[in-house]
Amino acid sequence: MAKRGKKYREALQRIDRERLYAPKAAFELLKDVDAAGYDTTVECSFRLGIDPRKADQMVRGAVGLPNGIGKNVRVAVVASGDKATEALEAGADHAGGDEIVEALSDGSLIEEIDSVIATPDMMGKLGRLGKTLGPRGLMPNPKSGTVTMDVGKAVSEIKAGRVEYRSDRNGNVHAVLGKRSFTADALTENYLALLDEIQRQRPSATKGRYIRTVAISTSASPSIALDPSRGDAAKDESA
What we know:
alpha/beta
């Protein structure tokens, strides 16, 4: 295990590891203990009571965060003709048909994008790139709204702060909530929007407790455990 720096160890001492924090209190503490000299990204992790080996228990989707994520999301759209034009007019960074597929295939575009949208007729050409796009979370999927004919709307929503999420092989879901520079209220609103969405996506086949644990962190801070049962009333709780 890598040795942690002094600031990280000091931050760890300020977090009560036995406590489940209310959302706003957790975000206020997180902003306070993160001593990085740059605007770090705030992330949230859910451990779910699902069987990740079963396809009918996969949790996947997308949600628009009310305060965005504080990042310019770079979007590529795989579409032809008028749909490519529509995507560019909506703010897509790259749009086109075979040329975008080729750029994704040879890797020249991979590091320049954060999300890929495709029209249904182009998915046959993208299917062979599953091993390249899948591990990076870039493969378009109807459930997350990234396989659609309404490419202009999809681009606008992603640019405005829609985030995609999916359960991993351990039954965990990770998602970005924003930046440390966001207010605790803004981060709480984003978190509650994500929490509501994760709860809504509960697979019918799951049994027992669905959301087991929730934790937030930044790239420069220890994690803080949240009480997953705390709802909207927790918005105003700061201690």
